Amino acid sequence: MRVLLLGSGGREHALAWKIAQSSILEELFIAPGNAGTKQHGTNVDLSPSKFKDVKAFVLENNIDIVVVGPEGPLVEGITDFFEADSELSKVGVIGPNKEAAQLEGSKDFAKKFMARHKIPTAKYGTFTKDTLEAGYAFLESMKAPYVLKADGLAGGKGVLILDNLEEAKAELKNMLADAKFGDASSRVVIEQFLDGVELSCFVITDGDSYKKLPEAKDYKRIGEGDTGLNTGGMGAVSPVPFANPTFLDKIENQIIIPTVKGLRSEGIKYKGFIFFGIINVKNEPYVIEYNCRMGDPETEVVIPRLKSDILDLFEGVATNTLSERDVQFEERSAATIMMVSGGYPEKYAQGKQIFGLNTITDSLVFHAGTKSDGPAILSAGGRVLAATSFGKDLETALKRSYDSVGKIEFDGAFFRRDIGQDVL
Ligand code: AMP
Ligand code: GLY
C-alpha cells in the first residue's frame, strides 16, 4: 500500500513510525513531516491545506491511502474534496468529511448533537453578537467559574474559564462584538463548569463499526501542578489508573456508542478517529469536547500500545470492513514527556541544535517541532520532541522517559517533572 500522511507534529511522527512497521506498506510519504518522520519515509514539501497540490501528488505517486493527522484540513473539507473528484475516488481518506468534522469544528454543533443523542455533557447556551444581552442574562443565571468557548477552531486557545461575573461578561463581549478569536468567536458557547479529572478516549471508525483504542491522560498546562498557561500538551500517560473497567464501560455505553450510532442515524458519514475529551465528575463521565483526529501528545502513548498492523485498520476504514479486523494492545504502560523550547507557549527561540538523540536506547523519541540542517537536528517549534517509554507499570515507564529526557539537550529546553504523578 502506498500511503501519504499529512501533518508535521509528534502525532504524525508516532503515526509514521507505526505505519512504517506495516507488512502491507509499499511506500510512505509525509507532508510536510519533520526531521523525525524522515526516518520512516520520504518527507514531501507540500501543504496539507492546498488540496489541489495534494491531489497532484497523490495521482503522480499512486497513493492508495491518505491519513490526515491534524483537524485543519478535515474541517476545511479535504475528505469531501477527494470524494467529489472522480480521479481520486479510489483513494481512501482516513479522516471525517466536513460535516462530520463539525464535531470539532463547531462547539455549538457538537453540543446540539449531544443533546439530540442524550450524551452526557455540561449544560450550555449559544450566543451571537445579536443575543449578547441574553448571554449576559445566561451568565447571571449561572454560578462561577464561567466557561466561555469560541464556537470555531481557535488553535486550542478558544476556551476561557473565569471566576468573576463581570470579567466573564467583558470577555463575552470581547469574543462576540470585538471578534477576540476572529470568526471562530462569532458564536460563543457558555457552559456549566464541570469539576473533575480529565482523560482522553479514542476510537477508529468506518462509520458502521468502531474499535476502541487505549485511553490516555494528557497534561495541558505549562507548569508543574497544572499551573500556568495552556499548551498543546506537555506529556501523557496510558493507561489511566482511575479509568477502571466500570468507568470505561460507562464511557462506551453512554458516550461512544450513542456517538457512533447518532452519526450514522443522521446520515453523517464518519471515517477516521474520534477523540472524546472526557471529564470524570463523581465517577460519571461527561464529554468536554470532541476532536475529529487523534490527540497530541496522546498519540505518542496510544499508538505505541497498538500491537496490530495500523494499515490493516486503515484499510478496514477505507473499505468499510473494520469489524473484520483484529486489534490487539500492549499490556504494558506507556508514558511520554514533551521537551519544549524555553518561553513556550509564549515567545520562544527556535533553531537550537539538539544533542544526545543518538544516545537514547530505552525510549522512542518522537519529533514534534524539528528540522534537519545537514547532519544536525534543530528545534523548529514550541513543542520540540517527546520521549515515550514502556514499563511494567506507569512508574517504570515514567522513569525511563525521564532518564532519556535527561540525556537530550538543547539551549533553553524545558519539560515538566511531574507528568503522571497525580494518577500514580
Ligand atoms: P476544550 O478546548 O473544549 O477541550 O477546553 C479546553 C479545556 O478547558 C479543557 O481541557 C478543560 O480543562 C477546560 N474545560 C472545558 N470545558 C469545561 C467545562 N465545562 N468545565 C470545566 N472545564 C472545562
Ligand atoms: N492533547 C489534546 C489535543 O490534542 O487536543
Main attributes of the structure:
single chain; about 425 residues; alpha+beta; 8-stranded antiparallel beta sheet; 5-stranded parallel beta sheet; 12 helices; 21 strands; binds adenosine monophosphate; binds glycine
How would you describe what is shown here?
The protein is of the alpha+beta class and 424 residues long. Among the domains are: 2-94, Rossmann fold (3-Layer(aba) Sandwich); 123-192, ATP-grasp fold, A domain (Dna Ligase, domain 1), CATH 3.30.1490. It has twelve helices and 21 strands. The protein has helices spanning 10-19, 51-60, 71-75, 78-84, 98-105, 107-116, 132-140, 165-176, 245-265, 299-302, 310-318, 394-405; strands at residues 2-7, 27-32, 42-43, 65-68, 92-94, 124-128, 146-150, 159-162, 187-191, 197-205, 210-218, 221-223, 227-230, 235-238, 272-281, 284-291, 333-340, 364-367, 370-373, 376-379, 383-391. Helix 5 crosses helix 6 and helix 7 packs antiparallel against helix 8 (165-176). Glycine is lined by residues 218, 233, 291, 295-296, 298. Adenosine monophosphate binds at residues 122, 147, 149, 159, 191, 193-194, 198, 220, 277, 288-289.
Helix content: 25-40%
Termini, distance in Å?
Answer: 41 Å
| pLDDT < 50 runs, ≥5 residues | none
Mean pLDDT rating:
97
- Report the CATH topology name of the domain at 2-94: Rossmann fold
State the secondary-structure class. alpha+beta
> Which band does the percent of strand residues land in?
25-35%
| Second CATH tier, the architecture of the domain at 2-94 | 3-Layer(aba) Sandwich
